[in-house]
Write a structure and sequence with these properties.
By secondary structure, the chain is an alpha/beta fold. It has two domains: 2-112, Rossmann fold, CATH 3.40.50; 134-209, no CATH class. The chain contains eight helices and five strands, in the order βαβαβααββαααα. A hairpin with a 4-residue loop joins strand 4 and strand 5. Helix 4 packs across helix 5 and helix 7 crosses helix 8.
């Protein structure tokens, strides 16, 4: 079987041997040799693991799989591929549709085997359920924001329902800009007039997470 590999480190992890590229590559090569697979290109990113966005080499790897250049994608650790269950499940759904396999060594997910495929299907089902729950929470929070109509507190403030909506959208894996666009398109009041910006959304969310003094 032809496989390609994906590895990732964040900027701060580059010097960490436990999460470094050499350790990831060694684990992948050992498993590929044990299974008698043919290893093609190794794709590497230095980027955040929180989202699949802005990871150019992962995108290249997924395009290669879609074009039939390999039969499976192998990664050493799940958190090298994604820290979001929704992102990972979305990738597995793509893999099933395009008929290529996903092998995650530390998690034991291997969709080349019946057991691995079963585990993948369970994770996909859980992610689909989570997406529905998040969707319902988003609609509820947006309705509460619209019902209130105006912000409360000081003039530059944002009401609690809007903060809750930002929190829900962020938990669903949306980027700061996607959240800003969603708030603007739905007519959510910024508290100061005008449209929402990614930097504003991020500031509000981080302030919401900060412990009370």
């Amino acid at each position: 079987m032809r496989v390609i590999a994906y590895m990732r480190v964040s900027t701060e992890e580059q010097g960490d041997s436990r999460a470094g590229l050499e350790a990831q590559e060694a684990a992948i090569r050992v498993e590929v040799e044990r299974r008698g697979w043919t290893l093609g290109e190794l794709y590497t990113d230095v980027a955040s693991g929180k989202s699949l966005r802005k990871r150019d080499r992962l995108g290249a790897a997924l395009r290669a799989l879609a074009e039939g250049e390999a039969d499976a994608l192998v990664v050493a650790k799940l958190d090298r591929l994604s820290r979001s269950v929704l992102d990972f499940a979305s990738m597995m759904e793509t893999a099933a549709r395009e008929k290529w396999a996903v092998v995650v060594l530390d998690l034991g997910v291997d969709t080349t085997t019946p057991n691995g495929e079963l585990v993948a299907n369970i994770m996909i089902s859980m992610a689909q359920w989570e997406r529905r729950i998040i969707g319902e929470r988003t609609k509820s929070a947006l309705a509460a924001v619209k019902a209130r109509g105006t912000h409360v507190g000081r003039k530059s403030g944002v009401d609690e329902e809007t903060i809750r909506l930002i929190r829900i959208l962020r938990e669903s894996g949306r980027s700061w800009q996607q959240i800003a666009d969603a708030l603007t398109s739905n007519g959510v009041d910024t508290g100061q007039g005008g449209k929402w910006h990614a930097s504003t959304v991020r500031k509000i969310h981080l302030r919401d997470l900060a412990p009370a003094s």
